[in-house]
Description:
The protein is an alpha/beta fold. The protein contains 9 helices and 15 strands.
Amino acid sequence: MSRTWGSRRTVTGVGILDRLAVGIDIGGTKVAAGVVDLDGRVLARQRRETPTTDPVAVLDCIADLVAGFREEYVVQAVGIGAAGFVDVTRSTVLFSPHLAWRHEPLRDAVQRRVRLPVLVDNDANAAAWAEWKFGAAQREPDLVCINLGTGIGGAFILSGQLLRGRSGIAGEFGHMQVVPDGHRCECGNRGCWEQYASGNAITRDARALAGERAAGTEALLAACGGDPTRITGELVTRVANEGDPVSREVIARTGEWLGVGMANLSAAFDPGVFVIGGGVSDADDLLLEPARDAYRRTLTGRGYRPEALIVRTHLRNDAGMIGAADLARTFRRRRRRRTTSDERGGAQILRIRTQRTR
């Protein structure tokens, strides 16, 4: 049960020290933060614009959000899901394509500011963990989470464990090359999967059609006020949901590329479920049905093996926040248990040595 003393809300009962954590999801455009309980429920939330060009401003933003939550709630840890490459120690952001982080020691910098245990992980890892524990893939030990936004973020959970890789940056499959000498990608290469199965792909294709004043683009042009440069993925999805055939065709083509990529991932990892999240997933079955069809057509060994389920995220935009909080809480609990075990072991060794000297 909850009890309020003054303006601070605390939680009584078993495991009081582990119940509440702050989760912070830092993307290229927004910082979403919330207080999350043991069941994955968000008790309070805040949203800010991301200060993309100044690492110190990002720290200020994080510290301010945590301080605001602590005025109302007793929290024990802070988890951060960062859009970038996070090292295997879950402390340093090695690189972020959309933020000014280059070998940024984010965990230690935030810990100094908030005076709480902090864990940093990739934002897609955090979202995958949340969907596995609380969302669309509960009780499924092997899953792939694909976040479709401006690009493609992703994560694997295999045998109930996040797959991080040797350096901590596994899951960057948005940068698998699928078209040699294809569209230039922000990573510096050409033909990456995210150039064909992401929000960028939808925007690029819709703008090209509208710019050519191709037949059937009247609804798109009307929605953007006659200026194709104003077309966004969100606009295309809205017009598609209103029934526009050209917008639906653009989304379906993106879905087909999504399905081909998932078939490739099935050949490598054989997951039981693909969880599709991110803003592009708002197109729902306009995207997912073509993806499922393309997946079935291109799956290696089709007809002789089980097909993975392809589902939309249940936790939507909260997944990264919830997962980051729970990962921080889990890490804190394990560390405390190790410390207690080490202390007990040390005490036992001391007793043995004392007995031997008597």
